[in-house]
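Run log, item B.
One chain of 413 residues. Sequence copied directly from the ordering sheet:
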Amino acid sequence: MADTLRLIYIDSAVCLRHFSPQPQNVFSRKNPRLEMLMVKAIGILGLSPLCAAQWVDFRFHSRSQFGTSPRRSLHESASSPSITYKLGAAFSAKGRRLNLKEDLFSFNSRNQSTEPFTGRPASGQDAFFVSNVGHGNSIAFGVADGVGGWSDSGIDSADFSHGLCRYMTKNAEGNDGKEELAAQNLLYQGYRAVVADTSISGGGSTACVAVGHPDGLLQVANLGDSGFVQFRLNAVHYWSNPQTHAFNTPYQLSIIPPKILARSRIFGGMPLRDFPRDASITNHEVRHGDVLVFATDGVWDNLNSNELLQIVSRLMAGFQAWQTGEKGTIIGSKIDALTEEGGISTGKENTLQTMLAMAITGEAKAASRNARRDGPFAKQVQKFYPYDDFHGGKIDDICVVVAIAVGTAKTKG
């Protein structure tokens, strides 16, 4: 049954051609009669009505139009790059001690020889990816958080989240430049590849995915309760909102094994399943000196926006990447050197962006283990479940990707 289900997921175009002479864009939730015909037709292949309905739901969601980048001209922006994204990452699984020397990664989009991160870090069910988009100057990066609730069904969502990031890296690297890569489409490509991967039996994950362009335009697709914040000149410029069905129930991409579908048919209820088209799509202008922080809920559940700003400001000001004077806060002249390898120290965390990622991870880790301080998650529990007497931090996997935007002389002026 599992192989049959995956075959239908992958080769649905054959079914579309056989069962309808209509253009593919007629398949939507506004055409319920056509959906029922599809469910009956797929039933011929031996799937239960529930499985068939799940497949139709997947295909109709995935056929929807994906967000496109707002950039005006691919040739224009590629020929005159102005913003370079200097990226660093840090991570820590909830059952591990934070290793300041090993749980790090640094990436410089200016250096095309830099290898993208394709491994599986010791980050538990949290994952991340960083990669150039094809051979151009754009960059793709993001985080994914495997949903721990799947462990109740004997499924480790780490395979899903890490697989999703691995496939998004592969698709970003393989982009040929003929069609501009949108963040939502990258998320869709990664999800489709995970569904087709027979080694991933089930599970679910949130995701926050970005594609940044050298003209300073950043597109983000955020699904679930991972998220990002944009800092500019010692202030919070943008803070993403989580997507949840209910408290502690985030939107999530998922693979639902046939056995769980059958159990749901008998006992009622249905495992959560959202799709790339459900992601929140936002477009942002990135300027020289901006700091972008992408993180899983291990950060957001333990640190609020003011605490995160304090961490970022302390380091940016401490290294004079941001300088405050009579005219307010300006970008320091050292920011370019500070974000290059070896710009801070001789250790592995020798760039400003990597140090920021490690500092945020370390603070979130400490807050998660502090039973005397109520973090954002504890305050939400107290709001929705006042009789639970929940206090302190929320111990969880943590994954942080930090990007510092560094401009050319033209954009610095």
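Observations after the first pass:
- The CA atoms of residues 141 and 157 lie 20 Å apart.
- The mean pLDDT is 80.
Flagged for discussion on Thursday.
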